[in-house]
Amino acid sequence: MIQRTATRIEARPIDHADHSWQRLLSESVTTPDALLRRLDLDPTTWLHGADKGHRLFPIRVPEPYLSRIARGDPDDPLLRQVLPLSSEAETYPGFVSDPLQESGSMPATGLIRKYDSRALLMVTGQCAINCRYCFRRHFPYEDHRLSPEDRAQALKALSDDTRINEVIFSGGDPLVANDRLLSAWAEALAAIPHIRRLRVHTRLPVVIPQRVSDSLIKWLSGSRLQAVVVIHVNHPAELDADTQRALGRLKAAGVTLLNQSVILKGVNDSTRVLTELSERLFECGVLPYYLHAFDPVAGAHHFEVSDDKARELVRQLITVLPGFLVPRLVREIPGRPGKTPLDLFA
Ligand SMILES: *Cc1c(COP(=O)(O)O)cnc(C)c1O
Ligand code: SF4
C-alpha cells in the first residue's frame, strides 16, 4: 500500500476500465411518455399524474431495473417506487422537504458529520434512479460537484479529526462517479492513519449491476481500508440473477455487504414480502442492516406506513426469521448520536 500525504484528489488512469454501465446510465428512461410506453401502461389513466409528479422530481429509471417490472401492472412494487403520481403535488400537515435536517452539519462542502466516528462524503449529487419516496427529491443536487478545492478541504477536515474512523461515500449515489475519481479518494483516505473503514452507500449494483466492474473491484478491495457496501433494496424482485452475480463478485473480493430498506406502503408493508426480502438478500450474500421507519417527506404521502404497523411487521419477522435476518427498525432523529431504534415492545 502506498502511503503518501493526502493533500489533493486527482483522478488517475486505471486499467480494466469498463464503461458499459455508463452507457446504460445515459440511456435511462427520463420522460413520463417513455416510461409508460416501455411498461405498457395506459397513458389516458397515467400520463397526467406522471407528468405532474415528473415536474416536481424528474423520472429516472435505467433499463436493467425496468426489465424487472411487470408490464401493464400499475401495482407492481418496483413500478410504484419510480412512477410519479399526481398526488405528489398535494400537501399534508407534517410532510416537509427536509425531515432529516441534513443542512447544518457540514464541516466542509460535501462532508456531513452527524456522528462522532463516521462522516458522510457526498461524492456526487446524482443518482442512477429517482425514487419517489426520497427526501432528495427536494434538493436540486444534480449539478452539485465538488471542486478540487472542496475535495482538498474535505480531506483536510477528515485528516484533522482523529475521532473519525470510517468514511461513507454517499450522494446522490457515489457510484455514479467514475472509478478514477473514486480510486483517488480511496487512496487519499487510506493515507490517513485513523481511518479504518470505507463504506459505500449505493443503489447502483442493484439498479445497474454492470456497475460492478473490474476497476470498481480493484479500488474497493485493493485498499488498506476494510470495505463495506450498503445497498438499498426494498423488495425481493429487485434482486434478479444479474444483481446476484454482481453482489457475488463484491463478496468474493472480501467486501462486507449490507442492505437498508425503507418501509413503504404498497411495496413492502407485509410480513410475507419482508421475509422474502431477507431470505433473498441472504441468498445474494447480503445481510439486512436497517429498515427505516417512514419519514414524512412532502410528495411521498402515498407511501406512509405508521410506526405501529412497522413495529408489528418487525415483531412478526422475529418469529419467522433467524435474528441475523431481521433488520433493525430505526429512524434518523436530528441531534441524536446515531440512528434511533424503535422500541418493538413499547
Ligand atoms: C445514517 C448516517 C450515517 C451512518 O450511520 P450508521 O448507523 O453507522 O449506519 C452517518 N452519517 C449520517 C449523517 C447518517 O445519516
Ligand atoms: S438517494 Fe437513494 S433513495 Fe434517494 S433517489 Fe437516490 S437512489 Fe433513490
Can you put this structure into words, describing what you see?
Helices cover 33% and strands 12% of the residues. It is an alpha/beta fold. It folds into two domains: 23-89, no CATH class; 104-341, Alpha-Beta Barrel (TIM Barrel). Strands 1-2-3-4-5-6-7-8-9 form a nine-stranded mixed sheet. The longest helix has 14 residues, at 43-56. Residues 112, 114-115, 118, 120, 168, 332, 338-339 line the site of pyridoxal-5'-phosphate.
What's the structural blueprint in terms of helices and strands?
Elements: H1 20-26, H2 32-38, H3 43-56, H4 63-66, H5 77-82, E1 111-112, E2 118-122, H6 148-160, E3 166-170, H7 179-190, E4 197-201, H8 204-207, H9 214-221, E5 226-232, H10 241-252, E6 256-262, H11 271-283, E7 287-292, H12 307-320, E8 328-331, E9 340-341
Parallel strand pairs: 2-3, 3-4, 4-5, 5-6, 6-7, 7-8
Antiparallel strand pairs: 1-2, 8-9
Helix pairs in contact: 2-3, 7-9
Question: In brief, what are we looking at here?
Answer:
The protein is α/β, with parallel strands linked by helices and 346 residues long. The protein contains twelve helices and nine strands.
